Amino acid sequence: MADSWRQPRRLLLLAIGSLTVFFLVAPTLVIVPMSFTASQSLTFPPEGLSLRWYTKMVTDPQWTGGFANSAVVAVLTMLLSTVLGTLAALGIVRGRFPGKSGAYALILSPLIVPVIIIAIGMFSLYVRWKVTGSAAGLVLGHTALAVPFVIVNVGTSLRTMDRNLELAAMNLGANPSRTFFRITLPIILPGVVAGALFAFLTSWDEVVVAIFLTTTRFRTLPVEMWEQVRQVVDPTVAAVSTTLLAITTTLLLLILVVRRQTPVR
Amino acid sequence: MTDRPALVLRSLVKRFGDATAVDGVDLDVRKGEFLTLLGPSGSGKTTTLRMIAGFTVQTSGTIEVDGRDMSRVPPYEREVGMVFQNYALFPHMTAAQNVAFPLQMRRFGRSEIKRKVADALALVKLETFGERYPRQLSGGQQQRIALARAIVFEPRLLLMDEPLGALDKKLREALQLEILRISRQVGATVVYVTHDQEEALVMSDRIAIFNHGTIEQLGDGEDLYDRPVSLFVADFIGESNILRGRFERTADGAWLVRAEWRWRVSARQADRHGLAHDSAAALVVRPERLRIEAVETGLDAQWNSVEAAVTEVLYLGSSRKVELVLPDDRSAVVRQPIGELDGDLHAGQRVRLAWRVDEAVLVADPNG
Q1: CATH homologous superfamily for B7-226?
Q2: Is the Cβ pair B102, A172 closer than 8 Å?
Q3: What does the alpha-carbon distance between residue B85 and residue B253 come to, in Å, rounded to a whole number?
Q4: What is the CATH topology of the domain spanning B239-364?
Q5: Is A173–B76 a contact, with Cβ atoms under 8 angstroms apart?
């Protein structure tokens, strides 16, 4: 049988695959049991079972404030970068203008440039503009990081869309804005939604830029966690982490589902 | 009643960088006429159609629809319907919503839209398919919905860009007649683009033959078939036997000369096509205009002939197709209606191919 010599190779492949997944996921998952510990310190394996750290998470104003700030910043970042990114994708996919590829490279540069460099640059500028320590400043910073994700997702949808549909709409009497809202947008919507979710996540778990642009009075959740871990190693961090993990995983699954709704052809 | 043409193109030119796609097209389309732009791919017919629709702006020249200059009118204000080869139905709307779209853009009332959509769906015989999405319809059904959508707002002009190109032959033939019936029923003026000559001959009142960005000839099917003005048209429309040579004018008439042969040609045709003495020319003889005679048959001055050998005889039901080879190894083809056959032919048989002087067409040979 041809399969007989393949069998050991398949087992080997399975072993390597499982190990890889273990290395990738284990450090993340170890935090989950730790969050249910009854003890005062972060330990693995956890000693006893309790929800006390979850209780602390939802009652301590430092944590609830962080949640609220993160949510506000992430939602605003999502809205702003989805609008800007969709417009930019339209220009880059449909438009013809000199310097287009240069503009595209610049817009995508936050994907490549080390975040710490972006963070330092933003900090020096935003201090001068006096927008540090505010939701507005952090939303601007995160939008710069999130726009490339929107462009890539919307751009893919636009490229697979039949250009004749827009010509047909115009031929039938729709001006450019009605063509966009009645035809283009509904067809590229899966890409727009996926881009928006990516934008939300980009802001939601961003810590480097946030450390520079936040103050003690205005902190997002990841910054709060960073500060807490540095000072008191209190298992609430594990509870917060587990909650964040749940939210992030849900959104990623959502993106997978939306992505599967490829533009109907 | 006015005799103003529905569409007038004047000196229409379109350049893309250094390439000239359309190179000076003049065309008048009458109201209610079915006019086809026919030509090989890259001949400028689709670019011309896209300029009429306003998707592309001409480099120079004018486009008038119902006497109105369209040069500065955006596509969404031209009131010109278009049917695309790939249907271009909106995938997120049902068939009925697709047909309603142009009416919504024109802000018709809800009840009027409902009535007009129902009428249009009935016209294309898909009245029960309104609630289906395009992906739930066959190719032919999608194209009928696209047609309904393009005529429901009563456009001044209906443009069709190879609308049947993606369909199989049988469906294509059925839809050709369907499109004709519908366009006649609503009295539409149609400009139709195709590269399929049979389709053009079946459907059109007149056909414009495109080649290298210009209209080589404009006329009805009979004009193009019996009186082609150029070698390109003769070769493009139908089957042809083409004899190339040099045109000569002598005291005793006009001739096409090649090697040892000298064939009498119509001096009137030579004048009409502006052939000069000793210029490269070609004689075009349709396969059904050639007669097969015995080698020793004597012919009068009304007839030309050339000796040939039969290579193949094919029976095609209503006609017999005979393939032959001339002494210079060029091939020829003859079509004979089955009812008019006299005698058998077999491969290898030597015969005389004959044609009447006035049944051959003399044209210039640009490659000569």
Answers
A1: P-loop containing nucleotide triphosphate hydrolases (3.40.50.300)
A2: yes
A3: 51
A4: OB fold (Dihydrolipoamide Acetyltransferase, E2P) (2.40.50)
A5: yes
Residues 6+ apart with CB under 8 A from B355: B285, B289, B290, B291, B303, B304, B305
Tokens of A55: 């209780």
Q: How far apart are CA B274 and CA B265, in angstroms?
A: 14
Q: pTM value?
A: 0.82
CATH 1.10.3720.10 fits A72-260, yes or no: yes
HSE at residue B64, side-chain half, CA atoms within 13 A, is: 16
DSSP, res A41? S
Contact status, residue B313 vs residue B280, Cβ threshold 8 Å: no
Burial class (CB in 10 A: 0-12, 13-18, 19+), A249: exposed
Amino acid at B264: R
Q: What is the Cα–Cα distance from B83 to B167, expressed in whole angstroms?
A: 14
Q: Answer whether B158's CB lies under 8 Å from B191's CB.
A: yes
Entry field: residues in chain B? 368
Asked if B194 and B176 touch (Cβ cutoff 8 Å), the reply is no
Of the partner residues B91, B105, B133, the one whose CB lies closest to the CB of residue A172: B105
Hey, which residues 143-162 in chain A have their CB within 8 Å of chain B? 162
Per the structure block, which two tokens stand in for A245? 């993990």
- Respond yes or no on whether ipTM tops 0.95: no
Per CB-CB distance under 8 Å, the chain B contacts of A183 are 90
Are the Cβ atoms of A164 and B74 closer than 8 angstroms?
A: no
Residue in B with minimal Cα distance to A188: B92
What are the extents of the domains in chain B?
Answer: 7-226, 239-364
Which chain B residues touch A182 with a CB distance below 8 Å?
A: 101
Within 10 angstroms of residue A76's Cβ, the number of other Cβ atoms is 18
Asked whether the beta carbons of residue A265 and residue B84 sit closer than 8 angstroms, the reply is no
Residue B213 burial by Cβ neighbours in a 10 Å radius (0-12, 13-18, 19+):
buried
Chain B interface residues (partner A, CB cutoff 8 A): 53-55, 74-82, 84, 86, 88, 90-92, 101-102, 105-106, 133, 135, 149-150, 153
Would you state the structure tokens that stand for residue B137, as one six-digit string?
Answer: 């319809």
Which tokens in the block code for residue A262?
């490829």
Q: What string of pLDDT tens digits covers the 265 residues of chain A?
A: 455 666 888 889 999 999 999 999 888 888 888 888 888 877 778 788 888 888 888 888 888 988 999 999 999 999 999 999 999 999 999 888 888 889 899 989 988 999 999 999 999 999 898 888 888 899 999 999 999 999 999 999 999 999 999 999 999 999 999 999 999 999 999 999 999 999 999 999 899 999 998 888 888 989 988 888 888 778 888 888 899 889 888 988 988 888 776 544 4
